[in-house]
Amino acid sequence: MPNIMNQLKEAATDTDFTVPYHFTEWLPENHLARLVVKLTNKLDASVFNCQFLKNNTTTYEPRLLLALLLYSYLTGMFISRSIEAATYSSAAFQYIAGNQHPDHETIAAFQKRFLPEIKEWVKEVLTTCKTLGIRSCYL
Questions:
Q1: Residue 47 contacts residue 116 (beta carbons within 8 Å)
Q2: Which residues lie closer than 8 Å to 77 by C-beta, 6 or more apart?
Q3: So where are the chain's domains?
Q4: Residues in CB range of 55: below 8 A, 6 or more apart
Q5: Is residue 25 a contact partner of residue 114, using CB atoms and an 8 Å limit?
Q6: 66 with 118: CB under 8 angstroms?
Q7: pLDDT tens-place string over residues 96-132
Q8: CB 99 within 8 Å of CB 77
Q9: Which of 31, 65, 67, 139 could form a disulfide with 40 if both were Cys (CB 3.0 to 4.6 A apart)?
């Protein structure tokens, strides 16, 4: 009788492998993160920019923070510390943030300052998800 252990593939954690160079290669074309970035780029974010530039406490573009929050909400993540951690560990969050890592205080401050506007954007994105038949949204 053959030894089953000889047939199992081991995880080769010390093996070199190639990682895609561009973030656009990390996610499939139909990934929710891509949709969120596209939708966020089409939003009229002038409200964010006007208020954001008055009291800017960070160097992050408001659309980047907005896209992170929208994607987080749509995937069931609501804690700013978790969102910050995801920018280091999740290809989708790295794609959205362009491999930048806003700290949790920046994310929370942006969320608090623009919560009414963010709620409206979430509704719009959910409507778009529903129209496109995307069911991976948690809200």
A1: no
A2: 83, 86
A3: 35-132
A4: none
A5: no
A6: yes
A7: 999 899 999 999 999 998 899 888 888 888 888 888 8
A8: no
A9: 67
